[in-house]
């Protein structure tokens, strides 16, 4: 007796669920053909949209990650950029400002923004779509502001300005402090190993369910990304291309940065820099970027042999920034700043981290 015959004769009557009628296809052959045509068209014009759960670490996320993500998700949008009829860029973004007349969205910039005929479509969390315009962009920071005209305000992101200062005091137990609850405020102290979450929005084909939020949990790291920009920080989150420009949030749902893509991690621009950039643009109508002619990093990120020498010479210097490079002929060189100098005060203000 074959296995199929055995199942039908002996087990079938006991398990009627096995005899369910075959399900009808969810889509007709005609609709399925249209979906595949759209898929092929998008694949030939842009990198195919892929959700974050492409990576196993983004599947089955825990309840704490879900809570933080859901708190921030109303402000997360999906953006499509077109030059004529051709799509040039698809990414995520988040709303930082919204009034009864306009809404501002921060996202990542693209070289395609330099064309005059760029058209923007903004897809918000409730499924609605709006025409947008590029208000400002900066390819140095790889940041852009998109504006939409709307007579009702939309949910805005809660910004958590980063404080990445960490003491190098050997008697200070950083790991214990990192797991303590911190009060809600406009600033957030972050240290390597802290949980962060990259968010993005994914727009499905019209025949599928609307717009989906995506979450990619990871850890903040002091490792440097491959982009040639010292202002960028790194997290171990794994995102796909349609998540670029989306927010990086902390475990309370506060936005701490703008996500950029890297091969094996997620680089992000701290929200401190992005916020200052936008405020300067609103005030001056253009971006302003100071240049002192030196590159610095946080004191705690220096090699351990250098930290040991600093502690031996200056036991009271426990926070600050260390100079990695001084440009010849710069104002920093004229001021007498040298390689491996530690800066703890600038313009009469105490300096504890790079973001200050």
What can you tell me about this protein's structure?
- It is a single chain.
- The protein has 356 residues and is of the alpha+beta class.
- It folds into 2 domains: 232 residues, Thrombin, subunit H, CATH 2.40.10.120; 57 residues, no CATH class.
- 19% of the residues lie in helices and 31% in strands.
- The chain contains 7 helices and 19 strands.
- Strand 9 and strand 10 form a beta hairpin.
- About 8% of the residues have low confidence.
Whole-angstrom Rg? 25 Å
CATH architecture of the largest domain: Beta Barrel
For the biggest β-sheet, the strand order reads: 1-2-3-6-5-4
Sketch the topology as an H/E string, one letter per element. HHHEEEEEEEHEEEEEEEHEHEHEEE
Can you tell me the number of structural domains?
2
Mean pLDDT value: 81
Pfam families: PDZ (PF00595), Trypsin_2 (PF13365)
Domain PDZ: 281-356
InterPro entries: PDZ (IPR001478), PDZ_sf (IPR036034), Peptidase_S1_PA (IPR009003), Peptidase_S1C (IPR001940)
Organism: Capsicum annuum
Fold topology:
Elements: H1 3-11, H2 29-45, H3 63-72, E1 76-83, E2 86-98, E3 102-108, E4 118-123, E5 129-138, E6 143-149, E7 161-163, H4 174-178, E8 187-189, E9 195-203, E10 211-221, E11 233-235, E12 247-249, E13 255-261, E14 266-270, H5 271-284, E15 294-298, H6 304-313, E16 321-326, H7 331-334, E17 342-343, E18 345-346, E19 349-350
Parallel strand pairs: 7-8
Antiparallel strand pairs: 1-2, 1-4, 2-3, 3-6, 4-5, 5-6, 9-10, 9-12, 10-11, 11-14, 12-13, 13-14, 15-16, 16-17, 18-19
């Amino acid at each position: 007796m074959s296995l199929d015959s055995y199942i039908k004769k002996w087990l079938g009557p006991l398990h009627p669920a096995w005899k369910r009628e075959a399900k009808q296809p969810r889509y007709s052959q005609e609709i399925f053909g249209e979906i595949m045509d759209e898929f092929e068209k998008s694949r030939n014009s842009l990198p195919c949209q892929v959700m974050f759960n492409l990576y196993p670490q983004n599947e089955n996320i825990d309840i704490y990650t879900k809570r933080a993500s859901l708190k921030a998700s109303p402000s997360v949008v999906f953006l499509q950029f077109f030059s004529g009829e051709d799509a040039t860029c698809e990414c995520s973004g988040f709303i930082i400002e919204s009034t009864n007349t306009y809404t501002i969205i921060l996202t990542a910039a693209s070289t395609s923004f330099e064309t005059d005929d760029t058209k923007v479509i903004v897809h918000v969390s409730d499924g609605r779509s709006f025409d947008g315009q590029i208000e400002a962009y900066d390819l140095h920071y790889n940041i852009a502001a998109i504006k939409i005209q709307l007579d009702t305000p939309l949910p805005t992101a809660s910004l958590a300005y980063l404080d990445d200062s960490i003491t190098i005091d050997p008697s200070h137990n950083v790991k214990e402090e990192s797991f303590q609850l911190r009060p809600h405020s406009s600033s957030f102290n972050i240290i390597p190993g802290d949980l962060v979450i990259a968010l993005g929005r994914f727009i499905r084909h019209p025949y599928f369910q609307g717009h989906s939020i995506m979450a990619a949990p990871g850890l903040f790291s002091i490792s440097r990304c491959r982009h040639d920009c010292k202002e960028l920080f790194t997290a171990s989150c794994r995102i796909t291309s349609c998540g670029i420009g989306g927010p990086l949030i902390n475990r309370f749902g506060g936005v701490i940065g703008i996500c950029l893509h890297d091969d094996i991690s997620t680089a992000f621009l701290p929200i401190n820099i992005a916020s200052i950039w936008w405020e300067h643009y609103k005030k001056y109508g253009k971006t302003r970027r100071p240049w002192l002619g030196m590159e610095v990093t946080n004191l705690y990120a220096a090699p351990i042999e250098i930290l040991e020498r600093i502690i031996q010479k200056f036991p009271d210097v426990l926070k600050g920034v260390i100079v990695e490079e001084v440009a010849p002929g710069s104002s920093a060189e004229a001021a007498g700043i040298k390689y491996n100098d530690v800066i703890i005060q600038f313009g009469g203000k105490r300096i504890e981290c790079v973001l200050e």
